[in-house]
Amino acid sequence: MKTKLWKVDPEAEDLVNDPQIREAAALLERGEIIAFPTETVYGLGGNAKIRDSVRKIYAAKGRPSDNPLIVHVATEEQVREICTEINPMAKKLIDAFWPGPMTLVLPSRGAVTDTVTAGLSTVAIRMPSHPVARALILASGLPIAAPSANSSGHPSPTTAGHVLHDLNGKIAGIIDGGETGVGVESTVVDCTTTPMTILRPGGISREQLAEVIGPVTDDPGLTRPDQTPKAPGMKYKHYAPEATMYLVPKGKDRIRELVVNQKNEHRRVGVLTTLENKDAFPDADVVLTCGRRSDPVTVAHDLFAVLRRFDAENVNVIYSETFSEAGIGKAIMNRLSKAAAGRVLE
Ligand code: AMP
Ligand code: MG
């Protein structure tokens, strides 16, 4: 299949009537799948009501069929069509953070195909704020099922180029709306428990959620090896660069030692660091910076693109700095830890 590429300026007026958005929306209505930018990462969208369309998403990504998708909507009316109930706490979260990088798990009405929910009785819903995503949903009039637009296991795409690299020839088209903003995926909140549970840390921090609804629990399956995560997707290998990656909490002096040891073994070594420390590793073959330590938002923004760049550099091993888990740091450390398959070097 030839993958069409549309370039759309997210700041243009009246995007809903943009001919390129209209063309992409028409393809979605016909059951084709399309990648589009959101404020978190690029999504791979299909018509959430058509089973065949949703199947195409799983096939293009190579995604395990037990891993449900997030349904993207543009209005609260669409939310009410998909779930049976929005409880008062969920409503507070909606009012505070939608449109934005937060996904709510709510009881499903069965209005979307069961391939979206992987047969669960709940459904994950998000209202994105990116103007292109909103315009595409409104132009199609559809709830759009959309996971991140990467091959399963790869880092999520933050540019149209990343999508093209993974999915060229496998999907009907890509709307290129430039680099995404937040850079990590949405926070997934299970609204069916009391207190509510964070199933995946993301663009909205636990601190932000707690300000609006009080205490929120973290799914113990996220950190405890003896418990299965409640979001089926969190149990899979993810974001992994081709090289073996290690997290090094002790920081730059320890990383320097590790680099020298590896160089003695004639291996090609990469370091994932931040702007503040970019000159601290003269012996490494490849030093890539991921934002500024002093501003974790910039680290989240660059993270997935940097993980992808290491693949192009053909390193054997990557040592990475670690970050505080405050605020968006929790999502950063979750993604890094998955990229490193849990490997930590003291
Ligand atoms: P992705 O679409 O790749 O960003 O991932 C969406 C995440 O939400 C995955 O970890 C899914 O397993 C999770 N998810 C989607 N729907 C549900 C649901 N109904 N209950 C629990 N987790 C869900
Ligand atoms: Mg994903």
What can you tell me about this protein's structure?
This protein is of the alpha/beta class. The protein folds into two domains: 4-222, Alpha-Beta Complex (DHBP synthase), CATH 3.90.870; 244-339, Threonylcarbamoyl-AMP synthase, C-terminal domain (Rossmann fold). 31% of the residues lie in helices and 18% in strands. It contains ten helices and 15 strands. It has helices at 19-29, 51-61, 76-82, 88-97, 131-140, 160-167, 206-213, 252-264, 296-312, 329-339; strands at 4-7, 34-37, 42-47, 70-72, 102-107, 122-126, 144-145, 173-176, 187-190, 197-200, 217-218, 244-247, 269-273, 286-289, 317-320. Strands 1-8-2-3-7-4-6-5-9-10-11 form an eleven-stranded mixed sheet, with helices on both faces. Strands 12-15-13-14 form a four-stranded parallel sheet, sandwiched between helices. The chain starts with a strand and ends in a 7-residue tail after the last helix. The mean pLDDT is 96. The structure holds adenosine monophosphate and magnesium ion. Magnesium ion is lined by residues 147-148, 156.
Q: How many strand segments?
A: 15
| Oligomer category | single chain
The coarse silhouette is globular
- Rg from Cα: 20 Å
Termini, distance in Å? 48 Å
List the total number of helices.
Answer: 10
- Small molecules bound in the structure, each named once: adenosine monophosphate, magnesium ion
CATH class of the largest domain: Alpha Beta
Report the CATH superfamily of the largest domain. DHBP synthase
Order of strands across the biggest sheet? 1-8-2-3-7-4-6-5-9-10-11
**Low-pLDDT residue intervals, each spanning 5 or more residues:** none
* Second CATH tier, the architecture of the largest domain: Alpha-Beta Complex
| Average pLDDT, all residues | 96
Domain module count: 2
Which class best fits the helix and strand makeup? alpha/beta
Determine the strand fraction and express it as a percent band: 15-25%
Sketch the topology as an H/E string, one letter per element: EHEEHEHHEEHEHEEEHEEHEEHEH
Secondary structure: helix percent: 25-40%
